[in-house]
Amino acid sequence: MIVILKENPDEKQLNNLTTWLKNQGISLHTSKGLHQTILGLVGDTSKIDIDLIKQMEIVEDVKRVQEPFKNANRKFHPLDTVIHVGNAVIGGGSMTVIAGPCSVESEEQIITVARSVKKSGATLLRGGAFKPRTSPYAFQGLRGDGIKLLLEAKKETGLPIVTEIMDLSQLDLFDEVDVIQVGARNMQNFELLKQLGRTRKPILLKRGLANTYQELLMSAEYIMASGNEQVILCERGIRTFETYTRNTLDISAIPALKTLSHLPIIIDPSHAAGIARFVAPLSMAAVAAGADGLIIEVHNDPPHALCDGLQSLTMEDFDHLMKKIHVLKEACDSCK
Fold this sequence. Notes:
Blueprint: E1 2-5, H1 11-23, E2 27-32, E3 37-42, H2 50-54, E4 59-63, E5 83-85, E6 88-90, E7 96-100, H3 107-120, E8 124-126, H4 144-157, E9 161-165, E10 179-182, H5 190-197, E11 203-206, H6 213-225, E12 231-235, H7 253-260, E13 265-267, H8 269-273, H9 276-289, E14 293-297, H10 315-334
Helix pairs in contact: 3-4, 3-10, 5-6, 9-10
């Protein structure tokens, strides 16, 4: 349920209303806009008398929300959520690019790539320390040592770091990580999501390869219901009948999720395509569709990468793509 208040509500009446609601066992989520304040009621609202609330002088309207996700719902929070990570801004009309190798392989590799992507315009550095792989014999990442190398790259370049967590037991290693990524395989690891909700770090939540928009938003709800509202949604492609590409990028996720939710959404064209030459056109499509950012795999030597070299851009190709993204973003903004 949401309660829409009139402009400049009387403080005493507002306090009386919120106190009464809390005494009914209802939690409140307050969203203040330029001209309206919205109270989001979370809990069992079935016994709340809508007509009684509507009669209050400070109340403009009361509506029941049918969707099961509350905190992530745009009806509760009409304005876009904007998340600040160091000097990077995610959401609110910005175009944030996260770039780096699929996997951290060595100090020289990660620092070389970090310097290059920063020069090209990326504002966050990605790199896998823990790698979920289909085969148990494939490279699994440098684990804790990989995070240490990411921190060295951050010290060298100033770029905030984004890396994936796979299990609750690893959480202590992420104390200095700026953005914690939850991979597609863990999107519905609810115990992990609840624990991440108790942190105050931004969480990059990837959509599972066979999950619906509502299921993605319900996973975000697990994090937000535990107290952490800094959630970034990520579309990384879904599994369809097509096998030519690694996955199928769902561009419609951008306008759909922006309609349903206030949370920022970024696109992962690298995992969606699985083929490096498709990353640029998919990136451009995402920018044109209104994505808040991109997360792109970049490697200094893709043919010899230990993980996902086929979908990784060279540093030169990434630099060229960033120039095109800048031009396209300006053109899109001028058409609004």
